[in-house]
Structure formats: C-alpha cells, structure tokens
Q: What sequence folds into this?
C-alpha cells in the first residue's frame, strides 16, 4: 500500500539522485540594510588557535548570545571563509553549567559544513538544558 507520505519521500529521493549537479553557486553577492534594524547581542570571545591552517580557511568573526525558547542558552557564531575556494570543516558544541562542569549530552558528534569562498555563515547552537551557562565551539579541519 503506497501512502502519500511514502510516494512523496520516494519522489524526493529520486529527485536527489537524478539531479546531483545542483549546488550552491560559487560566487555569492548579497545586500543588507546600510543601518541594520536588528542589533546583535555580541559577546566577548576568546579564540584558542591550535590549527593555523584551519584558521586561514574558516575564521570566527563574531559571537552572539541570547536566551531562546524555554530559557535555553542560544549562541550564534559567524564563520568567514577567508579563501577564494570552497572549504569544508566540522564543528562540535560543548556546554557547561555555572560551575564550569561539562554537561553530557547525546549530541556530541561533529557536524560537517561547507562554506563558499569569501562567504560567511552562521552556526547556531542551543544548549541542551537550562543549567547551561557557558559554551565552547570547536572547529575541526575536515581531512581529505
């Protein structure tokens, strides 16, 4: 019996297989307000650079912090690709309580992202518990 959900899923999978060449454009032009209405709640950050090669490819240029739904800490990090070519990297969030103790979660696997040349992207993390008061974002160079 073919349910509508099964047929839709099958159609999406077939489309992904038949059209693998569709991708993000190499060059990205954008426009934004000269005087932004939204004001970022930036926080002072401390970067610890142990991989200068990765830092040349994916550089953190800003950190915003807010309180999200249900009182959960929400952090948004802007990452800039300083090269002219597409770069891949992985990242992983770590969350800490008010005593600096790491909060163990099942979501400790690294996520891989791709970033176009000279483009910036935002990586958003939402704390797993309301007891999270601090964070660490680890960027990991994707090995070829």
A:
């Amino acid at each position: 019996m073919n349910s509508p959900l099964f047929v839709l899923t099958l159609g999406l999978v077939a489309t992904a297989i038949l059209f693998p060449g569709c991708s993000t454009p190499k060059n990205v032009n954008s426009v934004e307000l000269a005087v932004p209405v939204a004001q970022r709640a930036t926080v002072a950050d401390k970067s610890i650079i142990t991989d200068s090669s990765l830092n040349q490819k994916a550089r953190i240029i800003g950190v915003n912090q807010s309180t999200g739904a249900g009182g959960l800490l929400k952090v948004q990090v802007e990452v800039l690709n300083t090269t002219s070519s597409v770069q891949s990297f992985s990242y992983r969030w770590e969350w800490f309580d008010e005593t600096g103790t790491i909060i163990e979660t099942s979501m400790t696997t690294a996520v891989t992202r791709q970033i176009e040349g000279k483009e910036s992207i935002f990586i958003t993390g939402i704390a797993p518990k309301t007891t999270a008061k601090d964070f660490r974002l680890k960027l990991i160079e994707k090995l070829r």
